[in-house]
Write a structure and sequence with these properties.
Layout lengths: L2 H10 L3 E6 L3 E6 L7 E7 L5 H4 L8 E4 L2 H7 L5 E3 L8 E4 L7 H18 L2 H8 L11
Antiparallel strand pairs: 1-2, 2-3, 3-4, 4-6, 5-6
């Protein structure tokens, strides 16, 4: 798995918006943040530093939301750590792309998406799931 393939998958999920923030980080939101959406995944596109290349301080390639129960299980897996700055909200960080198989990546990120969607305020969820408003016809 790599950033481009995962990005393509994430953008196919319902109601996903993408922003570039905090340097070279792709942030994926359930619903646009301007309408009250919340982020559920973050892909780090920064080039690794010399310290990271030597293995002294690896930088996560991707971080995502997990449920409290799943968070504990995931931390026992090699290559996964508490996400910097977001661990208190039960976010997981993967140190390398082969931490999961492609199918596992899809399942984990689909679960993160569903978890965050369920936590959106009712008004935001309703606006995301409402059918598109019909445009009035213009008369000539």
């Amino acid at each position: 798995m790599d950033a481009e393939r995962l990005r393509a998958y994430l953008l196919k999920l319902p109601h996903v918006a993408e922003t570039m923030q905090w340097g070279a980080n792709l942030v994926f939101w359930v619903g646009d943040k301007t309408i009250g959406g919340k982020m559920f995944a973050l892909i780090n596109l920064d080039e690794p530093t010399d310290a990271e290349l030597s293995g002294r301080k690896p930088r996560p390639v991707l971080s995502y939301a997990a449920s409290p129960a799943r968070y504990s299980d995931l931390l026992e897996r090699e290559g996964l750590i508490p996400a910097p700055y977001l661990a208190r909200a039960h976010w997981i960080a993967a140190l390398h792309w082969d931490a999961f198989t492609p199918a596992e990546w899809h399942a984990e990120l689909l679960a993160a998406h569903a978890l965050v969607f369920a936590k959106l305020p009712p008004k935001t969820r309703k606006s995301l799931t409402a059918p598109a408003a019909k445009k009035p016809r213009r008369s000539a």
